[in-house]
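Issue 218. Parser rejects a valid record. Input:
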Amino acid sequence: MKLAPFATLAFLATLWFVAKLALEAIAADGGKIVAALQGRSVSTQVMCPVSVRFQPRAEAVRRPLRAQPEWRAAA
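Output the parser choked on:
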């Protein structure tokens, strides 16, 4: 019977915490959000080319595998 005030308090504390996290996220990325709403792009990262070497493995010589009658029966 006396649980309702504590449940309400827990609910309000959780609601306050979620609102605080949302406001911190908006404050951190507010410039990006405003730029996106205005149709502009904000470039904060410097793009530098990265060289990547690709060396394919040597092709292994594969011989066709001949199925044995026992294998066919098992399948």
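Fixed in the parser; the record now loads. The mean pLDDT is 79.
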